Amino acid sequence: MQDLSNLAEMIARHTDGDGVLATAIPRLSLVRMSKQTEPMQGLQQPALCIIAQGRKQVLLADEMFEYGPARHLIASADLPITGQVVGASPDEPYLSLKLDLDLSVLGAMMLEIRPQPISLVPTKSCGKALCLSNTDPKLLEAALRLVRLLDHPDDIPFLAPLAEREVLYRLLRGDQGEKLRRMLMPDSRLAQVNRAIAWIRQNYDKPFSIDRVAEEARMSTSSLHEHFREVTAMSPLQYQKQLRLQEARRLILSEALDAASAAHRVGYDSPSQFSREYRRLFGAPPIQDVSRLKTGPAAYAPASA
């Protein structure tokens, strides 16, 4: 508990106001929110998220993940999610860190680390690419050592890679270590689904057939349907739809496109279909939704972390 308190103190000290802070340590971000937020959609990339204070809900399709200081979240694929801070106040703000997973370092470490004996490998591991785990004290200690380097900027180039490596080592030795290994093994189901995800992300604005995605994933179509849903909690077409709608929202918000132009840009032929699906995902039609985001940005937290 002392390490958790120390981590919260470090995050609070290195965040100036609400929002997400990219730090001087590569791949490490800190998040602070002083009040509960509205749901916010986004794309969660492979990462470790540790909450030091407060609580958060993450929605993957229809599956809800809620966690706080005693647990952490690991994402092992690019996933469209909805995040909402549900435990925060000015006196006790939501404080968390997000460490994007360096897959090249993880892959090299996987080859170096001898697998644990079968009898010692934890048996409880969720099948989704988004999973919650209890935070082991050794993982918490390693994360705290990494964040403490923010107090010593001159040490970061030399010591941050070592501290990050320790965090990744603890993940590989933890109860989701086998999932991370499968993510990096080219013939595993998770790696095959990740290939399908990568192809859909590159071609989200174009029509595609399930056969084409299955070919890219090196799977049969029936196997792709089964394992894609197992990993992401949605079908490939549902995944594409969420990517399209999130990109359309970004275009309307950041490039001031009208709804029809944004819909066409992301691959919709029917503006009315786009409007219906946009409202279903974001809870309001495009103009109303974007106006809400512009007038009350402080109420919206990032989906990840």
UniProtKB/TrEMBL annotation:
**A GO MF term:** sequence-specific DNA binding
UniProt keywords (A-Z) are: Transcription, Transcription regulation
SUPFAM superfamilies cross-referenced by the UniProt entry: Homeodomain-like (SSF46689)
* Annotated Pfam families: AraC_N, HTH_18
Every copy of the HTH araC/xylS-type domain together lies at: 194-292
InterPro entries, alphabetically? Answer: Homeodomain-like_sf (IPR009057), HTH_AraC (IPR018060), Tscrpt_reg_HTH_AraC_N (IPR009594)
Instruction: Name it.
Output: AraC family transcriptional regulator
